[in-house]
Amino acid sequence: MCGIIGILGSAPAAPRLVQALKRLEYRGYDSAGVATLEGGRIERRRAPGKLANLELELAGAPLSGVSGIGHTRWATHGAPTTANAHPHATDKVAIVHNGIIENFRSLREGLAKAGHEFASETDSEVIAHLITDGLDNGLTPEQAAIAAVRRLEGAFGIACLFAGEEDVLIGARKGSPLAVGIGDGEMFLGSDAIAVSPFTTRVMFLEEGDIAILSRARAKILDANGQVVTRQIHVFSGAAAAVEKGNHRHFMQKEIYEQPETSGRTITRYVNAFDERVEMPDLDGVDLAADNAIVIGCGTAHYAGRVAEYWLEQVAGIAVETDIASEFRYRKPAFGRKSFAVFVSQSGETADTLAALRYCKDQGVKTLAVVNVPESTIWREADARLPTLAGPEIGVASTKAFTAQLSALAALAIATGRARGAISSQEEGRLVRALMETPRMIAQALDSEPKIEAIAHELSQARDVLYLGRGVHYPLALEGALKLKEISYIHAEGYAAGELKHGPIALIDEGTPVVVLAPHDSLFEKTLSNMQEVAARGAKLILITDSAGAAAASDIAKHLILAPACDPFIAPLVYSVPIQLLAYLTAVHKGTDVDQPRNLAKSVTVE
Ligand code: G6P
C-alpha cells in the first residue's frame, strides 16, 4: 500500500528519510514526502511521482532538522498529486499513514464542522486533525495520539511528529505492519525491517493494536489494552532483514497475519473509494461484457477461481466454467463466441496453468492473468493482467496470495457486472463499500487464534477430517481441507454440505472431526440440517460461524470458532483466516515442517 519511516536522529533526517524510502518504494511510488522539525516547526517537502522528484524538491529547498517522518504512497483515496501526498499536517502535528481509514468521511464531517480545514482528498488527513483537536484541548502528544487512534476504524500503520517536540515520535499499528528500530541514541519507525536497516540492526515488531511512544533514549510500547509491554528485539544483518519472520515462528504465520495489509493493498488497487466504483486497468482487448468466463488454476489458486465462479454468476450474471489447469485442455473445451478466460496463479509459472493459457490463446480466446509475481511467464503471455499485491510469499502453503487472489477476483466480478449491465451504480457502491471493510474484518478474524489453538491441539490427534460448506463456502471447505492436508499430513476432504448424504456420511463414526463453514446467511438453516445429520452419527462438530450462527447451533457444535459478522459478499475472504489458522496450529502441534512440507513445492513447473 504505502511505505512509512520515522527518525529521531542525531544527523539531518531528510537524506536518511529518502534513503529509507528508496527501500520502501516497492510498496508504492505514486508520490513521496517528508516532514522534519526545523527549529521546532513542521516543514514539509512533497512531490508527485517517484522519489527522484522528491529529491529534486529537497535539493531546491533543503531541510536540516534531525527529527522527521517520510512516506512513499500508493494512492487509495485521492489522485497522486502533491496535495494528496503525505505527510499530512497541521501547524501542530504531521502524520504519515499506510492503510485505509474506513470511517474517514464521518470523522472529516465532524472535524470540518468544528472548524478544521482540509487540504487533501485523502482518508489519512483526518488523523492529523483528530490529533490536533486533542492537542487543542490540552492533551499531551501521547494522550492525543492514543485518543485519535481509538476513533479510527480500518487498518493502519501511522507515524506522528509533533511541532516543538524534538524528542517524541509516535507510531501505531492495526492491520498494517510497523517496526521500531533501536539505534545508538537514535530511534526509528518503519514499515519493515529493511527500511530501518541502513541505521540499525536492532528491530522490534509492533503487534496488532500497539502504540509506540518513542524518544531517543526509550521505546515505550502500549498494547491494545493500554498496558505497557515489551516486544522482543531481533538483531538482523542488512541482508537477513529483506526476508524475515519478525515476531512469527513461521513464514506461514507471518503471511496469515499480513492479510489485512495484503488484501487491502490489492482491493485498493481496483477500487475508487471516493466514487465507490471499481476501476480496472486497461484490459487490452479483454471484453468483460462477454457471455462466458472460464476460470483456471491449480491447487489453492483453483479454489480462488471456484469462489470467483459464485461471485461472477451472482454479481455479473455471466455463465462461468472453472477447472483445474491439468485437466482443462485434455477435455478439448469448446468456447462460446464471446468468452474470456482468467488464469489464477501466485507464481505465474505453474506449467499446467501456462499450458491452459496457451491453449486458450490458440483458440483465439482473450486471456486475463490474476498473478502475484510480476513479469512471470503467465503475466507476460496473458493478454491482460490483474496483479495481486500479496508481496513475496515464502510459506509453501498459500495463504496471503489466496486472499489477494480473492480480492482481485471480487473486484473483477463487480467490473464484469457493470460491463454487462447486471448491476446498478447503487449496487456497485454497496459491494465496493463491503469490499473496503475486508482488511478490518480479516484483522478481527485473526483475534480467534487463541480459541483455534485449543481446538487444533485436539485436531492434531485426528486421522481423518471432513470440511463442509454450502454455496460460496463450498470451495472454501475444499481449500480448508487442502491446507490441513498440505502441512499437517492429516487426511482431510472438503464436501458440499448437501452432498454428504450421498456417500461420504459413511465415513463418520464416533468422534470424527467435521469442520463446518457456515455464517448466518440465507443458506444457514439448510447447513444446520446437515450438521444435525452428522452430529446424530457421532461427529465432533467444529463450527466456524458468526455470533448469530453460534447462537443457533451452540447445542450441537462441540467447538465454535467465531468470525466477525460481515457482508456475505466478503465472507469468503474473512472465513479464509480461521481455516488457515486451524491448519497452521494443527501442524505446529504435530511438529511438521510448516513452511516446507514434505513432497511439495512452491512453484510447480512440470506438468
Ligand atoms: C503448488 C503450491 C500451491 C499452489 C499451486 C498453484 O501446488 O504448493 O500452494 O496453490 O502450486 O501455484 P500457483 O503459483 O500457480 O498459484
Number of helices: 21
Strand content: 15-25%
Bound molecules: 6-O-phosphono-alpha-D-glucopyranose
CATH H-tier superfamily of the largest domain:
Aminohydrolase, N-terminal nucleophile (Ntn) domain
Main sheet record = 8 strands, antiparallel
Helix content: 25-40%
* Average pLDDT figure: 93
Q: Write down the Rg.
A: 25 Å
Largest sheet strand order: 3-2-4-1-10-9-11-15
- CATH fold-level topology of the largest domain: Glutamine Phosphoribosylpyrophosphate, subunit 1, domain 1
Count of strand segments: 27
Sheet/helix structural class: alpha/beta
Quickly give the CATH architecture of the largest domain: 4-Layer Sandwich
Domains, number:
3
**So what's the oligomer here?**
single chain
What global shape is seen?
A: globular
Low-confidence stretches: none
Query: What's the end-to-end separation, in Å?
Result: 35 Å
Q: Just give the CATH class of the largest domain.
A: Alpha Beta
Any overview of this molecule?
The strands form 5 sheets. The chain has an 8-stranded antiparallel beta sheet. A hairpin with a 4-residue loop joins strand 9 and strand 10. The chain has 3 domains: 3-247, 4-Layer Sandwich (Glutamine Phosphoribosylpyrophosphate, subunit 1, domain 1); 256-439, Glucose-6-phosphate isomerase like protein, domain 1 (Rossmann fold, 3-Layer(aba) Sandwich); 446-590, Glucose-6-phosphate isomerase like protein, domain 1 (Rossmann fold). The protein is globular, with a radius of gyration of 25 Å. With 607 residues, it is α/β, with parallel strands linked by helices. The chain has 21 helices and 27 strands. 6-O-phosphono-alpha-D-glucopyranose (G6P) is lined by residues 298-301, 345-347, 350, 353, 396-398, 600, 602-604.
